Amino acid sequence: MLSLSRRSRKEIEERTAYIRRDFRLRYGDGDELRQRKFEAQSGLCEICRDPLQDSCRRLTNLDHAVSIYLWASWPEPIEEAAAFANDERNIVAVHPSCNTAKGRADIMEFLESLQTGERKINKPRTYTPEEIEEKKKSVGGDFVSVKITAKQRDGLDELSRQGFNISHLLRKIIDQFLERHGLPEVEEVKK
Questions:
Q1: 134 and 154 belong to one structural domain
Q2: Fewer CB within 10 Å, N or C, the chain?
Q3: What is the pLDDT of residue 146?
Q4: Same domain, 107 and 126
């Protein structure tokens, strides 16, 4: 098990954010990794061992077996913690409901709490083939994945700390790109 250092809550949250950014830089939207994990686990959730119905992100989540919060608490440099946390051997495919139930817990600790009855999880919902197709469509074109360098990420983080609205700045950049290349504007997503 990891030995934990005495880090402040703020430092752990900052290190957690770094680990999440590192994950996105390594795996992008995670679709390829999700498919590999789905196949490697024979289509079974690593937590409840019930079948995962499809490898799309709406039906299958990627989870860190050893929680990123534990890695963020680790006394080693953040780059090393991120490398261990985001190593493919630490990533598992799970139902979204199982991932939510596990939360920040370590997977072994969580599975033990299920065996002792300390925690319970609801049986994951089974979707019809039509519902699965709808879920896949809802993921489809709604996301744009952009890989940025660490220097660019740090620049965006600095602008955010200075009070700039990063979403607004990125929207302007996307609009300029679309206009320059003669592409239609993307409609805002209403929440």
A1: no
A2: C
A3: 53
A4: yes
Radius of gyration of the chain (CA): 19
- Residue 161 vs residues 3, 20, 25, 155, 165: alpha-carbon distances, Å: 31, 18, 21, 10, 10
Q: Considering the domain boundaries, does residue 187 fall inside one?
A: no
Model pTM greater than 0.85? Answer: no
Residue closest to 110 by CA, chosen among 94, 124, 126:
94
Angle at 49 between CA 44 and CA 55, to 5 degrees: 25
Q: Which amino acid is at 190?
A: K
Residue 150 DSSP label: H
- 186 located within any domain: no
Residue 62 is assigned to a structural domain of this protein: yes
Q: What's the number of domains the chain is made of? A: 2
Residues in the chain: 191
Residues 123 and 156 in one domain: no
Q: List the one residue out of 92, 110, 93, 109 whose CA is nearest residue 101.
A: 110
- The amino acid that residue 137 corresponds to is K
Per-residue pLDDT of 55-107, as tens digits, reads 998 899 999 999 999 999 989 999 999 999 999 999 999 999 899 889 888 89
pLDDT higher than 70, residue 19: yes
Is residue 173 predicted with pLDDT exceeding 80? no
The dihedral sign for the CA sequence 78, 92, 124, 110: negative
